[in-house]
Amino acid sequence: MKKKILIAGDSRSAKVVQAIADIKPRVAAVAEIAEADLAQTPDLEKIEADLVCVFGGDGSLLRAVNCLGDNQLTVVGVNVGRLGFLTEFSEAEFLEALPRILSGEIAPSRRMMLDVRLVRDGSELHTWHALNEAVLVRLKHIQMIRFRVTVDAVEITEVRGDGVMAATPTGSTAYSLSAGGSIVVPGTEAICITPVNPHTVTSRPLVVSARSVVEIELLTDRNGVVASVDGQDGREVARGDVLRIVKSHRRCHLVENRAFFETLRIKLNWGGSPTYGED
Question: What is the pTM of this model?
Answer without folding.
Answer: 0.92
